[in-house]
């Protein structure tokens, strides 16, 4: 079911990318990149700092924290994990907006270059 939702989102994004005027797509993409970065980068920094402190407080290893931090969630107690999940989600949302905006920006620029 999740794969179907992703496939539908891709098809919708492609259709919107074809229907939205190129210059508007560039500006929308730029705005999404800016919003995603303004939300995701601070959330990511705070998340990693709190994850590091939580792992250290419980005497756990911090290796792999920068590449696959979600794998370390299972090593934490529920009381320490729950606040981190919210920051993880906010950071992931910011990252997703940044990637979506970059795709829109690139699509708009390619369409402008071909025009």
- The whole-angstrom Rg is 18 Å
- Proportion of residues in helical segments: over 70%
Instruction: Please report the total strand number as a whole number.
Output: 0
Low-confidence stretches: none
Number of helical segments? 3
What report would you give on this structure?
The protein is elongated and about 60 Å long. With 115 residues, the protein is an all-alpha fold. It has one domain. It is built from three helices and no strands.
Question: Mind sketching the topology for me?
Answer:
Layout: H1 2-19, H2 22-57, H3 78-114
Question: What is this structure, in a nutshell?
Answer:
The protein is mainly α and 115 residues long.
């Amino acid at each position: 079911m999740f794969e179907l939702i992703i496939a539908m989102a891709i098809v919708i994004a492609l259709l919107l990318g074809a229907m939205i005027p190129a210059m508007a797509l560039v500006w929308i993409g730029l705005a999404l990149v800016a919003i995603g970065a303004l939300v995701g980068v601070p959330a990511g920094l705070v998340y990693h700092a709190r994850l590091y402190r939580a792992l250290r407080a419980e005497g756990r290893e911090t290796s792999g924290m920068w590449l696959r931090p979600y794998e370390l969630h299972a090593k934490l107690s529920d009381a320490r994990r729950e606040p981190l999940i919210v920051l993880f989600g906010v950071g992931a949302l910011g990252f997703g907006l940044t990637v979506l905006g970059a795709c829109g920006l690139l699509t708009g620029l390619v369409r402008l270059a071909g025009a």
